[in-house]
Amino acid sequence: MKLLKRLAVPFAVLELLTEAVRRRPHSVVLFDEIEKAHRNVFDTLLQILDDGRLTDNKGHLIDFKNTIIIMTSNVGATMIINGKRKRDLDQLDQINMRVDDELKKIFKPEFLNRIDEIIVFHKLTNQDLKQIADVMLKEVSDRAMKSKNIKILVTESFKEKVVKEGHSLSYGARPLKRAIVRLLENPMAEKILNGYIKEGDNVIVDDIMGNVSLSVFKEFYDFECLV
């Protein structure tokens, strides 16, 4: 179902929520940045979390027993960002406790008590970002193979450049996509348009002294360092 972004008007929440769940009762419902919602939204959520159902504006009873409700929040984000990069258990426990204290300052106990589990997402390490970059780069490679039969292999040094230029303490992994577009997709598109890269080619993408290099080969031999 369509994800519900941060909403401030209770009636709008009620109408969107009940209609979406009525149409698709087996759904995941996401409330983004729940701490910014109107206070009446919490009353609605309490009813759903208590009874597993909600009455809409037309008097229809909507069943929520087959839905999964996820709420995100930035409460405590600053202390997570300011934490050390190393993930030792003592530090994680301290952060979890401090985030829990912050949640209690923002949300009422009766609301928190109805949540099955609170998960604290800690800031991403370089290894996390490299794994995310791997997924995004594979998507680009798969598209190139499907549309132009072009095989793309990237070196570790290029991935490190993507991670370095696509990482932000404030935005996490979001800038990775923009970095891949700027460093790989746009140069690839330009070289396809000018005929340097042709259908069926094999392309090695590397970072050489800070500059992105796209090299074309008719065949790949033994490049174990490429992924």
UniProtKB/TrEMBL annotation:
Residue ranges occupied by any Clp ATPase C-terminal domain in the UniProt entry: 124-214
Query: Listed GO cellular component terms?
Result: cytoplasm
Keywords on record: ATP-binding, Nucleotide-binding
User: Example GO molecular function term?
Assistant: ATP hydrolysis activity
Biological process (GO) annotations? cellular response to heat
Under the heading Pfam families, the entry gives:
AAA_2, ClpB_D2-small
* Entry-linked InterPro entries: ATPase_AAA_core, Clp_ATPase_C, ClpA/B, ClpA_ClpB, P-loop_NTPase
**PANTHER family recorded:** ATP-DEPENDENT CLP PROTEASE, CLP R DOMAIN-CONTAINING PROTEIN
Q: What protein name is recorded for this chain?
A: Chaperonin ClpA/B
Which organism does this sequence originate in? Corchorus olitorius
Taxonomic lineage: Eukaryota, Viridiplantae, Streptophyta, Embryophyta, Tracheophyta
